[in-house]
Write a structure and sequence with these properties.
Elements lengths: L7 H14 L4 E5 L3 H12 L6 H5 L1 E5 H6 L15 H15 L8 H17 L6 H6 L1 H10 L4 H9 L8 H17 L1 H7 L8 H7 L2 E5 L5 H20 L6 H4 L5 E6 L9 H13 L2 E6 L8 H6 L6 E3 L4 H11 L7 E3 L4 H4 L5 E2 L2 H13 L5 E5 L5 E5 L11 H14 L3 E3 L32 E3 L9
Parallel strand pairs: 1-3, 1-4, 2-3, 4-5
Antiparallel strand pairs: 6-9, 7-8, 9-10, 11-12
Helix pairs in contact: 1-2, 5-6, 5-13, 6-9, 6-10, 10-11, 12-13, 17-19
InterPro entries: HerA_central, P-loop_NTPase, T4SS_component
Pfam families: DUF87
Organism: Streptomyces nymphaeiformis
Length: about 475
Amino acid sequence: MGKTGSGKSYFLASLFLSLYLAGQPVTLIDPHGDLAQLVLAHLVAQGQLQTPDQRERLLYLDIPAAAAEQRYLPFNFLAQPYDDHAMAEHVTEAARRAWPELAHGAPTFENILKHSVVALRQAGLPLTRLSDLLTDTAFRNQILLTRVHDPQVIRFFRLRMDMWGRDAPLMKESTLNRADLLTLSPILRHALGHQDNVLDFRRLIDSGTSLIVNLSVASPDTRRLFGCLLTVGMETAALSRANLRAAGRRLRTPHVLMIDEFSQFMAQSEESLTRMLSETRKYKLFCVMAHQNWSQASDRLKGALQNVGIEAIFKAGRPDAEYSARLFGTVNTEAVKHVVADEAAEKRTHPTFYPLPEQWEHTTQEIQQLDVGEAFIRLPDDRLQRVHTPRLPDLPATSHGLDEIERYYLDRYFEQPQSESTVTTRPSIAGLSNVNIRRRSEGSKLRPRTGLIYAQSGHKRRI
């Protein structure tokens, strides 16, 4: 943790580069963009992205730069290699993170969302059709009749939702309010509404591919929801490694997940975050979480963060320094402040000890007075070290190589939506037995209502 200008971003960049150059796969999720661009610039300057093989080792996704060109990432989140009910849980967890108020309990919302996700998956439809599923009765009845095969899901819509009568709009409103955010933002509408998915998180971590995501989009809702889907996807991929046999478990590729402003994207309950940090570590996904101040973390998250292995505090403001002093500092109840000089009087008196508030104040001021790039590190054995973080070398003045790399990744992984009438084929999702996505005929009532789909591009790579 550290305030703006304390050197925290350069420390994260240095850590990413050190891990990457040592052959350790890393994923960086950056909601501001500066850190992602800094890391990419240094990788380019060090000649790490010159050859095709080097570029295959890294996936760089600049979401705002692509959106400025009306290009979008094919990110059909429902097209992940898990069963329908597992995907319903994953989407619900992402919703809890994106909208923290749901963490206190929203049974109706969760019930509707989980049944709807299963229905969409079995119907081969993306998450952006959620609103249509809930509001268009004819559309819902047709897919329930012809494409949904889970009797519990059919029973929920037939015998519960259809029986709400006049109360139906009120019962569904909370879900619809959030479902509309999936289609209101062009970035989410075109990414989540795509039939293809270039981000297979399990394949990404198993293959040792590194990922940098620039999420500095203008809309906070878009940034938060997109980031929550990414973090849930990475965590789920790590936990799915439990299906490996004992011999394969030794071959799990370690992966580091680095998240700036982590409180926007991580589990919002102390229990969930503690469980996530503990369980993902077992499957070799290690988290580096950064934030600017403690006000960004709720009391529940503060409790969960006591379970992390290593903590670092950079220069902080007074309130954060006071709170961190209690986490990083220690007091000596026998520290002597003053002893009388008169030996004869010494026997008749006792020494003056340092008051505990004064000792805590000393630690607080030390944190406030840290230089840029200087930090206190608390190690797993509770030892405290004062360190100077490495300085990054100066970058060359020219950005020709950087521009070329950015263009390479934009052209490779982002697509422009096209009119339905100009497309003859649609991309398919390979290797996903639980997802049945098929091309709709022109006369089908199940045609996507956005009027926008994507041309198939043979050069696109799926991760």
